[in-house]
Amino acid sequence: MKIAFVQKIASALLLSLGALSVGLPAQASTLINGWHYANDDQLYDGSGGVSGNALFSGTSRYDFYGFGFKQVGQELFVGINTSYVAGASGTINNVGYGDLFLDLGYDNGSTFKSAQGSLLGVRFAFNDSAVGNGVYTNVTGKSVASTNSGYAKLNDYNKKVKADNDNKNLPDPNSRFGDLTWSNSYFGDYTKNTSVAVPNVIATGTKYTGGNVRSLSPADLAASMFPTNVNIASSNKHIFGFAFTLPEDVRGMSFLATLGFECSNDTISGYVPTRPVPVPPAIAGILVAGAVGGWRIRRKQQAKANQA
């Protein structure tokens, strides 16, 4: 097969695949080794410990340092850098991870409050959620912070963060939620109304039967090149991961992800832009066949034109 023929087939295939995918927007979040990664290690903004220590410091047991998302085949991988590591019961002092929320309407101007009822939620670990492990659509969240010795009010949480970081000569001692600040308008309904707690677990939703939530080991995360660098000193550096399958109608869509601990001692958000949807091998084969057939037809037509 001539090189020119191969090049033409490859070009046609790329154009065909491009018709089935959406390009990344200019505002794409930090991309590291294929992971859309949100940093949350500018300061200590997670508190708590086995002994009940409430300080925001490098000894905290409830601090997010960053998390990321990576499409691997039909699955979405989630990796977390954190000071949290679960005990034998799946929690520390019966306090664990909250549920993951994906807001698929973020690019259209939604807020965390207005998105309630239309979120996609993932329960991936033992907690006080009202549902079992899995992927859920049309999700409404609730807060369980008050029953987990945590911060029921977002303002109270940030006041403690600021107090513990004010004397460290930081540009901004206020809490960060990964790609967002705690005072970002996305969380405005919770910063303005101090009696309303930020949802951190699923209250209601419709289970998607193809969600297939599974744990990822440190070896799995290393093999997928998950970034593990943390820019602040910590005596409790850990990584945690899980994978799941999104409903087919939302695969490749952009979203803002939000995850907190049950105690709301820290929360993190990260933006994932629109991304190409993996093409199943069967469809890819059809596209190749179509590209080859189209090239042969054009070649025959050109040959007839030259003979005329």
TrEMBL record:
Keyword list, A-Z: Signal
Signal peptide: 1-28
Protein name: PEP-CTERM sorting domain-containing protein
